[in-house]
Amino acid sequence: MHAGDGAGDRPRVVLGVAGGIAAYKACELLRLLTESGHRVRVVPTAAALTFVGEATWAALSGQPVSTDVWTGAHEVPHVRLGREADLVVVAPATADLLAKAAHGLADDLLTNTLLTARCPVLFAPAMHTEMWEHPATRANVELLRSRGTVVLEPDVGRLTGADTGKGRLPAPAEIFAVTQRLLRRGDLGPDLAGRHVVVTAGGTREPIDPVRFIGNRSSGKQGYAIARAAVARGARVTLISANVALADPAGADLVRVETTEELRVATLAAAEAADVVIMAAAPADFRPAVFAPGKIKKVDGAAPTLDLVTNPDIAAELGAAKREGQVLVAFAAETAAIEQAVASGHEKLLRKRADLIVVNEVGVGKTFGAERNEAVILGADGTRDALPELSKDDLADRILDTVLARLP
């Protein structure tokens, strides 16, 4: 990273803001960047200033704001800003801005900066659904991605007016999370560009009656961290989420499920066109044999008997149907000591026909819901990578590094 002029080693970020109603949300992204120690220069388009004024950007960033290449021309800002940046993020990125960036048009300071940037570039699009789905926009997005630019998939939700659909700007906190992965990776680039990665996360619930269920302690944090890391590395990500209380990761296509059977159906469908399938969810091994349509009552204080049946092994089913070149990653959550857990994990690796299995020790106060994780990654080729305790974000990248080495 570049050293700042009197700013120490703070990462230099250019925050581009295009002219859409979601420009107001970029204020929150700017706050997250500055408060975490980044030196941010906001470069809005002229249209963006109709939504949020110049004084707001200057006050929040502590830096001058301009939209044209003539202000401070002696410093050659249209070249200097891009050259000195560690990251350029454009949020929101409109259809017009994406078109200009894809075709190298440079009629203001932001588009000139994009042409001179030699650092990672991230676009967070926001527009109406019809604009996002238009063939011209899709072609521009694919062109940008083919050049190594990370273009997030927009969220689905409320747009301007009464409209609802795909095109909503992802939550600023989730865009911020992607910027941190990009800055952490530096110039390594989007090495999963063009790949489709399917990730499962969370814990399934098997209903006993309308108010009770069998479940587990999985928080989904590791799966969500893997999804975020894959997005930052340029992949198209499908995240199949079971019963989590986490914010939707920016740029991932989210599929919500509840039961193991719903997880199975969604994962098998998504895996058909996937390059990588990472089974980080914790599906329930058992479910009640019979679902009671009404709440089960206590009778004379006696507890009812609950008959269980075994749920399907989704990872084993994926392993049996795995295509040539597809990489399958399973997880093994074990309560045993690590060597016994590794032995059990190796047996599961072979039985499920997975390429990799991530083995970790779980229990009360361990792994579930925590921010850090310690794991051993076993490979079907006999490799064993024992990782120290890492943040779940860093572990996600280590898992993806291992996956990448096995992709054709």
From TrEMBL:
Pathway: Cofactor biosynthesis; coenzyme A biosynthesis; CoA from (R)-pantothenate: step 3/5; Cofactor biosynthesis; coenzyme A biosynthesis; CoA from (R)-pantothenate: step 2/5
Every DNA/pantothenate metabolism flavoprotein C-terminal domain range: 192-404
GO terms of molecular function: FMN binding; metal ion binding; phosphopantothenate--cysteine ligase activity; phosphopantothenoylcysteine decarboxylase activity
Start and end residues of each stretch annotated as Phosphopantothenoylcysteine decarboxylase: 1-196
Region (Phosphopantothenate--cysteine ligase): 197-408
Swiss-Prot/TrEMBL catalytic activity: N-[(R)-4-phosphopantothenoyl]-L-cysteine + H(+) = (R)-4'-phosphopantetheine + CO2; (R)-4'-phosphopantothenate + L-cysteine + CTP = N-[(R)-4-phosphopantothenoyl]-L-cysteine + CMP + diphosphate + H(+)
InterPro entries membership: CoaB-like_sf (IPR035929), CoaBC (IPR005252), DNA/pantothenate-metab_flavo_C (IPR007085), Flavin_trans-like (IPR036551), Flavoprotein (IPR003382)
Binding-site list for CTP: D285, K295, F331, K348, K352
Keywords: Decarboxylase, Flavoprotein, FMN, Ligase, Lyase, Magnesium, Metal-binding, Multifunctional enzyme
One BP annotation, GO: coenzyme A biosynthetic process
This protein's name: Coenzyme A biosynthesis bifunctional protein CoaBC
PANTHER family recorded: HOMO-OLIGOMERIC FLAVIN CONTAINING CYS DECARBOXYLASE FAMILY (PTHR14359), PHOSPHOPANTOTHENOYLCYSTEINE DECARBOXYLASE (PTHR14359:SF6)
GO terms for cellular component: phosphopantothenoylcysteine decarboxylase complex
Pfam families: DFP, Flavoprotein
Ranges where the Flavoprotein domain occurs: 12-172
UniProt entry tagged with the keyword Metal-binding: yes
Gene: coaBC
Stated family: In the C-terminal section; belongs to the PPC synthetase family.
Cofactor note: Binds 1 FMN per subunit.
Names of required cofactors: Mg(2+); FMN
Annotated function: Catalyzes two sequential steps in the biosynthesis of coenzyme A. In the first step cysteine is conjugated to 4'-phosphopantothenate to form 4-phosphopantothenoylcysteine. In the second step the latter compound is decarboxylated to form 4'-phosphopantotheine.
Enzyme Commission no: 4.1.1.36, 6.3.2.5
